[in-house]
Amino acid sequence: MLVSYHRVDELGVITINNPPVNALSHGVRQGVQQAITAAQADDSKAIVILCEGRTFIAGADITEFGKPMQAPSLPEVNAALEASAKPVIAALHGTALGGGLELALSCHYRCATASAKVGLPEVTLGLIPGAGGTQRVPRLIGVPAALDMITGGHRIGAEQALALGLIDRLLDDTLEAGALAYARELVAAGAGPRRIRDMSIAADSCDPDTIAAYRDRLHKRRRGQEAPQIIVDCVEVAMTTPFDEGLAYERARFVERTQSEQSAALRHMFFAERQAPKVPGLDQAVAPRNIERVAVVGAGTMGGGIAMAFANAGIPVTLLERDQEGLDAGLALIDKNYGITVSKGKLTPDEASERQALIAGTTDYQALAKVELVIEAVFENMDVKKQVFARLDEVCKPGAILATNTSYLDINEIAAATTRPEDVVGLHFFSPANVMRLLEVVRAAHTADAVIATAMALGRRIGKVPVLAGVCFGFIGNRMLRQYVREAQLCLIEGAEPAQIDGVLTRFGMAMGPLAVGDLSGLDISYKARQALTREQKGDPRSYAIADALVEMGRLGQKTGAGYYRYDPQTRARTADPEVLAVIEAQAEKHGVTRRELSDEEILDRHLMALINEGFRILEEGIAQRPSDIDAVYVHGYGFPAYRGGPMFYAGRRGLRAVRERIEGLHASTGEAHWQPAPLLVELVEADQTLDDWLASRTRAAGQ
């Protein structure tokens, strides 16, 4: 039974039991409504709502979104709770999120365990609260706090919730005993129903200028996202209209959001993140290895960031550098980074010190003898990496996992430098490694199932989104990035300017444009990497001619004050530079390119189709397990807008037939071989199938 009702002396108790998170499914909604109706007919003096298991209601049943609503709806249930003639007390533990918090706000009083958290995270799925959240919260805690809470989607701890007024009592006792005692206290005091709907919002609580300024901040912080602004609309309605009108307005906007493209994309990403760590075909009898101590070889920016990622998760790290000078520089950078985090208020000084204390430095390989995992993060050079792995093979204990952070190189060749290739795996972090959520786990030819299982579990443990990839040049993300960067360079030499290209991509929703990204990371980084490539690997000379010319002029990007743009020494503000246009025109002439005007639409399509076409090739080759894994890589590693769902989801929404036709059009107009449509794309279009159809048939064929 999902919902039960029983008496405990003078109290009625409604208990919800819908594991694992007591989601507000149709059965739960129906059960609560029936229970509250039953409670009105008996002689109970107050009603307590409790949840079994590890949490209060952690939200709606997301699988019901987009489907016809079965009555009763959550607003109907909430109305029944709020209308109760007897006081209703919600007892919160674990998390009360989304619809769970809205249900609790419809009760007359709220108590919670000290460890409980509350929140309205709908905005993270492109939604808005749809059962009174935008109407009740500002009435309870004021408009500014309500806007911060709802547009941010953050969880709030019980103590802060008490201070704000979201809950009325922190429980010292166990949940049920404490909640019943609180209910009896209310009964003894003669407290009747206290309905938030009857509260008013002070006329001067938030003036129009403050609201306008808040909208401007949201435009910058949540660029391109629709839901945050609609939340502000709903809160404004709460300030100016009667409660029932505001409730109806909110519900209509909520229904619109459930049918929106942005919400579909964000819900796709929600499931993509949860699906990514699952590896079909992995031996289920194999348990992940125990990882208690980790080492990182290389104390540069990447190595230090990786060390911080583990320390932030409470895992001790030994950081190895070849000399004391390099080690001191690496540890100083870590100290600086923690200091910045403290200055932003994201950590207390004590918390930062505790984490930093977990990082120990050494210049002696023997200090790595007892660790369970070593991650190599040295210069991207095969000979250097093979030397490191040969040394690790000598000093590390049997069963230790030897991982490389390489971005492009052949991990099979690296593994061959050891006597234990089954213990070698790629763990490709993204910079800054202590911040970026993506972790590409690269399975080499001989990597053991236990090593893959360990890597995926460890990725989740340190707060990453681990995605499995196969061995190829650049794996999933960087292999696709090469195509994307190629189009930026070709658009540049063919007629566009840096600001046009970057503007098109950022308006689409990318975190940064490709040329601004190059300036930020340093143009010399990719320049040096290209020097190690064969002519075939480098590709079309037009696709790097401008970048090479800028580097050879000393324009390395932000660090030298000039790259594709010129940068103000103090503010780092960028401006267009006529000198760059001269370089572009000179390289176009050198390579026989007649420059022309490129439309924004062409620039956008060329970048997106390059990603998508390569994504289809990656799927066909088995480099990625599933289309949503590619989306997870691009959203969490490369700044693709989550509200567009990643390149493969975008392709599906645009229509595979339309995508194929656009790519074929680019192939016809350019004659370039890289615009030949991927065979898998052609196959699916001719069979009138979707990527979901392909994944389902592949899963069936594998017997999973």
Describe it for me?
With 704 residues, the chain is of the alpha/beta class. It folds into three domains: 256 residues, 2-enoyl-CoA Hydratase, Chain A, domain 1; 180 residues, Rossmann fold, CATH 3.40.50.720; 122 residues, N-(1-d-carboxylethyl)-l-norvaline Dehydrogenase, domain 2 (Orthogonal Bundle), CATH 1.10.1040. Helices cover 50% and strands 12% of the residues. The strands form four sheets. Strands 12-11-10-13-14-15-16-17 form an eight-stranded mixed sheet, with helices on both faces. It has a six-stranded mixed sheet with strand order 1-2-3-4-6-9, with helices on both faces. It has a three-stranded mixed sheet with strand order 5-7-8. Helix 18 runs antiparallel to helix 25.
Characteristics of this structure?
704 residues; alpha/beta; 2-enoyl-CoA Hydratase, Chain A, domain 1; Rossmann fold; N-(1-d-carboxylethyl)-l-norvaline Dehydrogenase, domain 2; 3 domains
Short description:
By secondary structure, the chain is of the alpha/beta class.
Please report the number of helical segments.
30
Spatial shape: globular
Integer tally of domains: 3
CATH fold name of the largest domain? 2-enoyl-CoA Hydratase, Chain A, domain 1
What characterizes the major β-sheet? 8 strands, mixed
**Fraction in helix:** 40-55%
Could you tell me the mean pLDDT?
95
Order the strands across the largest sheet as they lie in space: 12-11-10-13-14-15-16-17
Using only C-alpha atoms, the radius of gyration works out to 28 Å
Q: Just name the CATH architecture of the largest domain.
A: Alpha-Beta Complex
**Overall SS class:** alpha/beta
Spell out the CATH superfamily of the largest domain.
Answer: 2-enoyl-CoA Hydratase, Chain A, domain 1
- N/C terminus separation: 31 Å
The percentage of residues in β strands lies in 5-15%
Total strands: 19
Spans of at least 5 consecutive residues with low confidence = none
CATH class of the largest domain: Alpha Beta
